[in-house]
């Protein structure tokens, strides 16, 4: 990858100068450059910033922006920029500003061209902390070089800086299997080796292997510490065990820690198994094209707000690989997803791995092994930890073979607790109004004609009109009257009517 820069300056009372030759590229298309500035006068504070609106949509800032600077003269590095696509003459606006009364600033435009190129990543085999040597002994140095760039390398070679007291070849030509000399195809790696011989007067020094290619602007360097300790008691026996044969004894490194350099996720675009796993944990049916593109877009947003560290440890016939994640974003990530690929050197199958991830739903994407972890909600400065455990003591160098991607379903603004009025969706009764919390505000959703029920949080129904109670007929007085009339009739019959009839 080659960067070509030009600059156009606009003179103001605060001056800024960019040296195009100082641009530096690191792995995965990250770059920065040196900025010189001259500030005169008194200001409350001063800062340098990249105008994010001038960056292409897929490019990202990887460091704090703006960054504070001294309100004087000096030189500082521009915040790192991740160029995730090739492009020509991209104008990036750089601002140096002094805040005060009045505030003043100077602006400069940096034109960047990002071309396809080879990016070489080299590492020692095995991943050793140092190599113990003895007088007159010959050792084999083995290393691996991977081309993680876009195109095949051209004229790839390794230069060897051999320290005093040792002899080794000055250069090595690198090439992939079946390829011409100097060619390492994109995405592939090659093996290299050479012999280094300790003289009769070796010292503890660093040996350097510098790998580069004609179409790669930046080289990668392996530093190999060569450790020598004088024999004890003059008997010719060193304090460290001798290697068997001409090669370095293969010793497993049991502990390693690595801070990961992250790039936005791309696996979701074409990985149907990953998509199926996400659909399963979200339980919302088949993912639409719009939903997938939204997750890819949010992956770009959250990746720059994450700090991720891998830690490997092997002891007591057990190996542990821990991933520590800290989310630094200022929005709450809903359905925060981690897509993690574990090296086969750690375990051939997910069946052999014990996984611990507090608070997450765990789904196996591939038994190969690949995992998906879904956290319902992740807040600012929240720490997550994923732990893998297997039997047996593995080699810590596998820590360089892991990869991880991050996604989210949505990002929501965080309402400060002291300003929080209500909880989204909560309801209440206020007099005869039924209200619901929407966007931290009580909103009337219905005016209750017959009052609001604070228990059921609903409007009361229209009350029913009470009808007069119908009392059952009391037959007792009627019966008494009938009996009295009957008795009176009988009395008249026997006392008057019957008597007159007898007299006649």
Describe the structure.
The strands form 9 sheets. Strands 1-12-11-6-8 form a 5-stranded antiparallel β-sheet, with no helix packed on it. A 5-stranded mixed β-sheet has the order 14-21-20-16-18, with no helix packed on it. The chain folds into 4 domains: 3-114, Immunoglobulin-like (Sandwich), CATH 2.60.40; 120-250, Sandwich (Immunoglobulin-like); 259-413, Immunoglobulin-like (Sandwich); 427-459, no CATH class. The longest helix is centred in the last third of the chain and has 28 residues, at 476-503. Helix content is 12%, strand content 43%. A hairpin with a 2-residue loop joins strand 33 (433-438) and strand 34 (441-447). It is mainly beta and 504 residues long.
Structural topology:
Elements: E1 3-10, E2 15-18, E3 24-26, E4 30-32, E5 34-38, E6 45-50, E7 60-61, E8 67-69, E9 73-77, E10 81-82, E11 87-99, E12 104-114, E13 120-125, E14 131-133, E15 138-147, E16 157-161, E17 166-167, E18 171-173, E19 189-198, E20 205-212, E21 220-228, E22 255-259, H1 267-270, H2 272-282, H3 289-303, E23 306-315, E24 318-327, E25 331-341, E26 354-356, E27 361-366, E28 370-378, E29 382-391, E30 403-407, E31 410-413, E32 427-430, E33 433-438, E34 441-447, E35 452-453, E36 458-459, H4 476-503
Parallel strand pairs: 14-21
Antiparallel strand pairs: 1-12, 2-5, 3-4, 4-10, 5-9, 6-8, 6-11, 7-10, 11-12, 13-15, 15-19, 16-18, 16-20, 17-19, 20-21, 22-23, 23-24, 24-29, 25-28, 25-30, 25-31, 26-29, 27-28, 32-33, 33-34, 35-36
In short:
The protein has 504 residues and is mainly beta. It has four helices and 36 strands.
